[in-house]
Amino acid sequence: MGNPSYLEANDHLLQDIERKGQRKELPPRGEISLASNDYLHLSRHPRLIESAIEELRRSGTGATGSRLLSGNHPLNRELEIAISAFKNAPSALVFSTGYQANMSAIGALSGLVDLLYSDALNHASLIDGIRLGKKETAIFPHNDFSWIERDLEMRRQKSGDFPRFMVVTESLFSMEGDLSPLEDLVRVVRDRDGLLLVDDAHATGTIGAEGRGGFEQAGLTWDPERVILTGTFSKALGGLGGFVACHPDYRELLLSRGRGFVYSTALPPSVLASNLEAVRLLGEGNGLVQSLARRVSKVRSLLDAPESPSPVIPIMGNRNALLSFQERLLETALWAPLVFPPTVPDGSERIRLSVTLGWEEGWIDRIAEFFHREKGLKAGG
Ligand SMILES: Cc1ncc(COP(=O)(O)O)c(C=O)c1O
At 346, is the pLDDT very low, low, confident or very high (cuts 50, 70, 90)? Predict the structure, then answer.
């Protein structure tokens, strides 16, 4: 008997996915998603749209190559200067997606350490960077910095010294909606000579008094020799692309060793232009971040969710209650997607709501009403 055909083998994989309840489908067309990452509704902002159109006319549709070859449009540099100023960073490097920024930064910086600590709920782009780094990895229970301290102490007792290590985490977790204990993590790496990489993807534009992210929210400054920030223009900044904000020497390393930087086409100039406009807009402090904060607080209070500045609110409960909540919303053309493993841990499927300035007041009342009609739903984050 020969090998199954590739389509038969493919079918086996699909059956396996089905069995594990992991089959994904694209959302219904035309519905309004309540899980959008367009937190400040900037994807529809006239200033971003105009700047993209102008640049599109000036520079055309594509970047025509990697930045190391033909794609190094001057707007890349302007955007790097703007985002590093926004993040209080000495320098930054722009990537074509946040996924590539994370994967490339961790992959390259792994060359500096022997051991990586990864939060159990880290995003796939961080996990893929860790895989690329091919260094020993210890997964620590979500946000449990004392686990890292104990592990490091154990290693020190065994070998006489702390290993060279990097802790990898998110500042605002994309599916849990909670914040990481940055102050404690900074102390762990400072006292034991480690590095800390923080993904500010969902925190940029959403938390901190001026929307500057996790460190601003925690009231901390960060040491660029020890802390590396990553982020994306694709969420609160309404566009596309990623960035690493870091010490200029790390930037230099990423230029040569950041695989997603070296081997991928740069962002189209029009996208760079709208990203730049978004960063400028936020830097002007025009009340957008405060409006989001007020709305988050209102929705959290209506859903009895814990008080937090986080716009990501997971709705937990048994599958039937979640599906019924989803169905009611869908009847009114609101789409609240169910997220299930492996995107979230086994047994913790949820509906992910993300509050944005694009939400209308009427939706908030509807969401609250349907939420309270179901028994056993709980809002978290
Ligand atoms: C925590 C986190 N990091 C990184 C990314 C990747 O960003 P991008 O969508 O720009 O590739 C995402 C988006 O899914 C995310 O949720």
Answer: confident
